[in-house]
Design brief:
Elements lengths: L1 E3 L5 H14 L6 E4 L2 E4 L3 E6 L8 H14 L5 E7 L6 E4 L9 E7 L2 E7 L10 E5 L4 E4 L3 H4 E5 L9 E7 L5
Antiparallel strand pairs: 1-10, 2-3, 4-5, 5-12, 6-11, 7-10, 7-12, 8-9, 8-11
Length: 173
Amino acid sequence: MAFYPAFLDFEDGDALVTELLATTKFAADSRLMYGKRVAVPRETAGRGDRMSQPWTPHLLAVRERLEALLGTGFDYVFVNRYRDGRDSVAWHGDHEISGKVVASLSLGATREFDFRPKRESDLRPRTIALDLAHGDLVVMRGETQRYWEHRVRKDPRVREARINLTFRQHHVR
């Protein structure tokens, strides 16, 4: 895992947020859990190559910066909108992308992003917490997804929205 604070400056981050909110159709999904259908506690969208919502000009510019920095290509991005601190994502690892690069860009409200190893020798797993602010970037590559999981927990103190962009790869270019 690598951390790039202020990968985007405030002005570029604000322009990207404005563009995304004006052009992105978000969905409020649900999932079957323990025999019940429950709402996913955030809104989501996908954009990119061969997707119904294409890249926007600002997203393309960010993708190009990421590709130059990381030496790899990205063909789509998940757009997650956390409306406030009640929205979250539970502990998980992205199994389908093990070995590939994920670039996770935070915009808007500062939220705590937690990592922990999937297997820990003692009874209390070690958690690493990062406060991700507007424009901060986290890059997960290699075996990160196989051996670590991550989350954004609920935080009732957060009243502002956060958008998280996870640039991903179907086909590495």
